Amino acid sequence: MEFLRRLLPEHFDLEARGGYLADALAVAPQLSDRAEKLRQQHGVLARQIVELAEHAGSAGDEASEWEAIAQHVRQFAGALLRHEHAEGLLTQEAFTDDLGTSG
After folding, report:
1. Smallest Cα–Cα separation from 56: which of 45, 71, 41?
2. What pLDDT digit, counting tens, does each position of 34-56 carry?
3. Which of 6, 14, 18, 35 reaches 20 to 30 Å from 62, CA-CA?
4. How far apart are CA 22 and CA 29, in angstroms?
5. Do residues 74 and 5 make contact, with C-beta atoms less than 8 angstroms apart?
6. CB-based burial, 73-94: b 16+ in 10 Å, e otherwise
């Protein structure tokens, strides 16, 4: 979990400093509002992984506590996958529109 705790903010930081969303917005600036909403999710997701790591690090031996942590990890993983998927769709839409292949 500690690895993900460090890696996720680095990933978001790279995107913020001109990752692939910048390329997509260069060809499709009309998608900037959607891109901004996705960028705003970065802080929420980064805070959630920090909270998960802290909770896991201080957890005791109670099975119910670890079940709760596992549930939170599954929820977080789902949110992160949906976020990354939305970024991929935005990028795909930008370059599809740029190529003139969408309706």
Report:
1. 71
2. 999 999 999 999 999 999 999 99
3. 6
4. 9
5. no
6. beebeeebeebeeebeebbebb
Helix (H) or strand (E) holding 35: helix 32-57
Q: Which amino acid is at 47?
A: R
Long-range CB contact pairs, 26-35, < 8 A, 24+: 27/94, 27/95, 27/97, 27/98, 28/93, 28/94, 28/95, 28/97, 28/98, 31/90, 31/93, 31/94, 34/90, 35/90
Residue 48: name the closest of 100, 102, 1 by CA: 1
User: Is residue 4 within 8 Å of 49, Cβ to Cβ?
Assistant: yes
Is the pTM of the predicted complex or chain greater than 0.70?
Answer: yes
Provide, for the chain, the percentages of residues in helix, strand and coil under a 3-state DSSP scheme, each rounded to the nearest 5.
85, 0, 15
Q: Residue length, the chain?
A: 103
